[in-house]
Amino acid sequence: MITLTGLWQQLRQQSKRLWLGQWLAFCGAAVAVPIPLMMPLLVDEVLLNQPGKLTQTLAALLPPAWVGPIGIIACVTLFTICLRLGSVLLGVATTRIFVSLSKQVTLGVRQTLLDKLSRIRMQVYESLGAGQITARLLTDIETLDKFLGETIAKVLVAVLSVIGVAVVLLWMHWQLALIILLLNPFVIALTMVLGKKVKLWKQRENNAFEVLSQSVSETLEVMQQLRASNSDKRFLEKAKQAAETVREAATASGWKSDALSRLSFGVFLFGFEIFRAVAMLMVVFSDLSVGQMIAVFGYLWFMMGPVQELLTVQFSYYAAKAALTRINQVLEAEEEPHYPARVKGFNDQQPAAISLKHVTFAYGEGDPILDQVSLNIAPGEQVALVGVSGAGKSTLVQLLLGLYAPNQGQILFNDQAIEQLGYAQIREHVGVVLQHPMLFNDSVRQNLAMQQPYADDALWKVLEVAQLAQFIRDLPDGLDSQLGRSGVRLSGGQRQRLAIARMMLKQPQVVILDEATSMLDTHTEALLHAAMHTFLRGRTTIIIAHRLSAVKEADRVLVFDGGRIIEEGQHATLVNQAGSVYQRLYGQQTA
Ligand SMILES: Nc1ncnc2c1ncn2[C@@H]1O[C@H](COP(=O)(O)OP(=O)(O)OP(=O)(O)O)[C@@H](O)[C@H]1O
C-alpha cells in the first residue's frame, strides 16, 4: 500500500537534492521578503521628508552629490529590481529541483503499479478491465503527480514566505501583525473541513472517467466486429453516455472545488479588509506612519500569494488521497502465489513428463470444470485432448501453466510439483499456442521475438517451418513489416502460423497447441504438420483440436466429458469402438 507518508520518505531518500532545494527555497524567500519594505520607506524618508535609516545607510555608501531624492529613489529601485531578479532565478532553480524530485517519486508509483500487474491473479483481471487499470495508471497518478509537484515545490516557499512576512510584520507593529496572523489558522481549519468534500467529488470524477475509459477501450478492441454487425454506433453511444457522466462529475468537482477554494480565500480577504481599516485607524490614533502603513499593506499583498497556494495545496491533498485510494485498490489486488524455483525440473536435452493427480478445479464458486482428473503423459509423447465444446480442455491448459491453481490434487512436471518448480520455470519451458493468438501493433520481428534478441536467421528458420516465410518475404518491409493493431493485417491462419513460429523460437520442452491450426486450410495444415514433425520429435506435446486431421497423428487420445477423462486410446482403436463418444465426434470426419 502506498501512503503519502511513504512517498515523503521516498523523497527524503534523495536527501542531497532535497536539502539543496530547501536551501534555495529559503534563499528565495529571504530575498523576496524585504521587497515590500523598500518603496514604503521611500514614502516616509523621501516624499514625507523624514530621513531615517535608509537615508543614513545610503549617505554612508554613496558620494554626497547622489544623496538626494533622485539618487535615493534610483538606488532603491535598482536594489528592488535586483532582489526581484534574484527571487525569480532562485524560484526557477528551486522548482527545477523539486519538480524533478516529485517526478521521480511519481515514476516510482507508476513502476510499482506496473510491476504489480505481472503478479495479479488472473481471476482479478476477469473483473478488472484494461480501461479501469489504464485510468488508474493515467488519471489517478496524474492527480497524485500534481499534488506532489505542487506540494514540495510550493509549500516550503509559501510557508517560508508567510513566516518571513510574519517576522517583519511583528517587528514593524506587533499588535497589527497578531490580528492577521491569528486569522490564518482559522482559514486553514475552514479549508480542511471543506477539503474533505473535494476528496469525494474527485473520487466520483475519476470513477466516471474510469467507466468511460473502459467503455472506449472495449469498443475499440472489437471495432471491426461491431462495425460488421452495424452495432458500433450503439456502443459508441454508450461511451457517449459515459462521457456525459464524466462531464457532470467533472463539472461538479471543478466548480465546487474552485468555489470552496475561493470561499476560504474570501474569508481571508474579509479579515484583510477589517485589518486595513484597523491599520488606518492606527495611523490616526497611534504612532504608525503612512509609510509603515503602506509597507504593512504591501506585506499583506505579498502574503496573499503564499496563503492562496497553501489553500490550493490542501484541496489537491484531498484529491491526491482519493487517487491514492484507487491506486491502492489495484496494489492490494490478490496476487497469484509466488513459488520460487526450488528444483531444476527441466533438462534442455530431454522432453518432460507431465502428470496430474486427482485434479479438481472450479472457476470461483461454481461446479467443478475438472473433476478428479488423473493422467500421465510420458516424455516425448504426443497426446490429443478432445471433447465437446466446454468440456474443460482449455481449462486444463491454464492449470498446467499455473494461470489458475487446482482446488484439489497436484500437477507435476518430471515428477516435480508445480509449487517446487515455480511458475516462471514452467512458463519458460512450456510453449503454448492458442486459437486466437495475441499479436501486437508492431513489426513481424518484434511479434516473433517478444522483446528478446534473436538473430534474423533464427526467425527465418521458424517462419519456414510455420509455412509463413514466403509470405513475410513478399511483404515490402519483410521482418520489419508492421502488423497493425492485434495483427489485423494478417489473416486468421497467418496469425496462427506466426504464433506457432513464435512458440518454436522458444524451443520449449513441452508444446501445447490449443486449436492452434483451426483456421488453416487442410493443405497448409498438412504441410505445417509435416514440417513440424522434426521440431516436435523429442518434445512432449499436447494437442487440443476439434479437427480430426490435427488429432489422429497423436500417440494417444484422451476424451474429456463433464470434467473427466472418459475414454483413452489410439485414434484407430477409439474410432472403431462402437457407441464411444470419440466415434460420435470423429466417426463422421473419418468417413
Ligand atoms: N475464466 C473463466 N471463468 C469462468 N468460467 C470459465 C472461464 N473460462 C472457462 N470457463 C468455463 O469453463 C468451462 C470449460 O471451458 P474450457 O474453455 O476449458 O472448455 P473447452 O473444452 O476448452 O471448450 P472449447 O472446445 O469450446 O474450447 C466452460 O463451461 C466455460 O464456461
From TrEMBL:
Q: Please indicate which superkingdom the organism of origin belongs to.
A: Bacteria
- Record's SUPFAM superfamilies? ABC transporter transmembrane region, P-loop containing nucleoside triphosphate hydrolases
Q: Which InterPro entries match?
A: AAA+_ATPase, ABC1_TM_dom, ABC1_TM_sf, ABC_transporter-like_ATP-bd, ABC_transporter-like_CS, P-loop_NTPase, Type_1_exporter
UniProt keyword annotations, A-Z: ATP-binding, Cell membrane, Membrane, Nucleotide-binding, Transmembrane, Transmembrane helix
Membrane topology annotation: Multi-pass membrane protein
Q: What is its main location?
A: membrane
PROSITE patterns named among the record's database cross-references? ABC_TM1F, ABC_TRANSPORTER_1, ABC_TRANSPORTER_2
* Residue stretches making up the ABC transporter domain: 354-587
Can you name one GO molecular function term for this protein? Answer: ATP binding
Ranges for domain ABC transmembrane type-1 come to 24-319
Localization annotation: Cell membrane
Which segments cross the bilayer? 20-43, 70-93, 152-171, 177-195, 263-285, 291-311
Task: Quote the Gene3D superfamilies the UniProt record gives.
Answer: ABC transporter type 1, transmembrane domain, P-loop containing nucleotide triphosphate hydrolases
This protein is called ABC transporter ATP-binding protein
